[in-house]
Amino acid sequence: MRRALYDVAALVARIVVGVIVVAHGWRTCAAGVDATTREFARWGAPWPRPFAWFSICAEFGGGVLLVLGLLTIAAGIALFGVMAVAFAYEHLGHGLPLQNEGFDLVLALGVVALLLAVAGAGRLSLDHLLFGRRDRVSREEPAAAPSPVAV
């Protein structure tokens, strides 16, 4: 029962976080790499141009992967990294308010992405469908018979 609850909770978390970061990634992509690079440079973030590319790919691609539950570990780690940089270089100084660029949203998204990377996508995911069967089969193999003990 507990595992089934986790599977449903992970599915809901993946969809909600995935949709939010895809929307942010779409907005970042629409603004363009040059505008995003300038924004990251304004923040004082290291390597603003490579990070702009990484951010666009992680938000848009990672969000899609989270929704699908595919390559969840990689997507979660990438999104956690993007949110950590946004938290540290831009949003932390604004405090916790629910408006005016506060850090509440990036903190929540980053923590949930990290949780999914560590705990997994659950059984309601493409990760489980494509990669989980090997694990299940190996757990269901019968244990080897104990060797007879000489008396």
Gyration radius, rounded: 20 Å
Helix-and-strand structural type: mainly alpha
- β-strand number: 0
* Percent strand: under 5%
What string, H for helix and E for strand, traces the elements in order? HHHHHH
For the biggest sheet, the summary is: none
Structure, explained:
Helix content is 75%, strand content 0%. It has one domain (2-130). The protein has 151 residues and is an all-alpha fold. The N and C termini lie far apart (45 Å).
Give a quick precis of the structure.
This protein has 151 residues and is mainly alpha-helical. The chain is 75% helix and 0% strand. The chain is elongated and about 70 Å long.
Labels describing this entry:
single chain, 151 residues, mainly alpha, elongated
SSE blueprint and pairings:
Elements: H1 2-31, H2 33-43, H3 48-68, H4 72-91, H5 104-119, H6 126-140
Helix pairs in contact: 1-3, 1-5, 2-3, 3-4, 4-5
